[in-house]
Amino acid sequence: MIEVSMFQLFVIFVIILYIVRRPRIGENEPPLVPYTIPILGHTYNYLFNTKKFIKECKEQYGDCFSIYIFGEVMTILSRDTLTEVFRNPDNFDMISATKETFPLDQLLPYSDDKPEFHARTAREQVSGKLDINIGIVQKYLIKGIENSIGDCNEPKVVYNAWNLINYIIALPIANVLVGEEAASHEDLVKALGDLAFDLGPLLVIPPILFFIHKKLHEFVLTIPFKFGWSPVSRHRDIVVNRLRPVVEKRLKERKELGDNYKPYNDLLDYYMSRPNFDNTKPNNLHFHVDNLFSISFAAINTTSRAAVDALYDMAGRPEVLNELYEEALAFDKECNGSVTLADVQNMVKLDSLVKESLRHAGNIINLSHHMVSKSYTFSNGFTIPEGRKISLYSDDMLKAKENFGDDAEEFKPFRFVNAKSPATKVDRSYIVFGGGRHACPGRFFAINETKLFLHKVILNYKISTKSGKIEDKIFIGPLTSPSQSGLVFENRVKNN
Ligand code: HEM
Q: What pTM, to 2 d.p., does this model score?
């Protein structure tokens, strides 16, 4: 009898894998960058040497090329080909590409509302109501700063600043989403704020099981869900429990007041006015809470990231902070401590700093999409087949000399002061909020909350890095995370 050792089995498995997963490139496709190690392809360089590797690929193969990672071909797009993705939303789908590594529908199983619903909600109910809600945002930013940073008579050093800032940013957002009564509960604010931190790691787990089969990654990731555990369940329980009494109270008010009921300006009240709101149905509140989670996931972590990056960018540059302090003081004097939305929008130096900071977020490649038509031919003549995953070489686009000048690579905090190009403005090259039909609908809220947060912090504290240097971000594969080096807060009033 022939005996087969484990090693022989492994070799047979690898050979089959090699044959099955071999990249097949059709005619007229963007060039596939050559690689030496079969099966692994460019995976190592993609994960551990992204910046240099992708830059060299672009120099050699142009704006549009393919690499072979995790057992599949991925086409990397920059400049004109990147712009085409935003201009042709019917051909490129981000949701399906995201779901491969991040099973959002299984994490939020109660809601079957479509992404368009959340986009409209963010645009109309969150960004669209910012002028009404700016007072709430201001009130809770001040409260969050007092509670979380507080008195820094003695310099206070914060190491994981993103966590701290995330709670401050989450507080006003929670108030805007569910109203002041429900958001008075700290556990609810934490549940909404921490959601993305708890789910975020799923997004950055390298999908090594893709080497065997695409579906295997999702299958393994979601095994715990099948046994009733998911990273969302704990958060959902907290939010449902806190919202239930508020919902019942509002339903009672609606019944008693009839046409005289004065709607609250929060998202919860909007959900309650939808025809599919029915508190008598089991799990109906769970349905709306999962919708709330979709918005919180998109809103909180992203905004706090913008805020903490900008803080580090200022902290490493004392001369910039001084200039921003002068601007902040002038606005503060004029409005006696209570700024309006127009004031926030008119803080041009702060706006420029935030925009420059977002431009330097440092993510090399992101916003993967699937090409979902039969085939797609770019204006440069290259064609990609149905199902091809594409990713955007964002860092290259955001540092394009044609759009930002010869010094595009430099961090120039006041680059946009006279450019009539606010941080919310999406254009061909400034793609931090995506572009086209799906451009981020929450960006007006995000930028204004970030600016208002920074305005209050700049007025209250001198901020510096513990090292006295400009701190670098941390690379996680092609993506970045804020620095975790010490950030020092010192009371301003006393030290000036
Ligand atoms: C600085 C903070 C933020 C950044 C950097 C950011 C970035 C982005 C990006 C890159 C996209 C994809 C756009 C595309 O596909 O072209 C997006 C989509 C989206 N964002 Fe934001 N976002 C931020 C804040 C917010 C906030 C505060 C909200 C909610 C109030 C929000 C809600 C959404 C929604 C609902 C979408 C999906 C839009 C669609 O598919 O049509 N975002 N965001």
A: 0.95
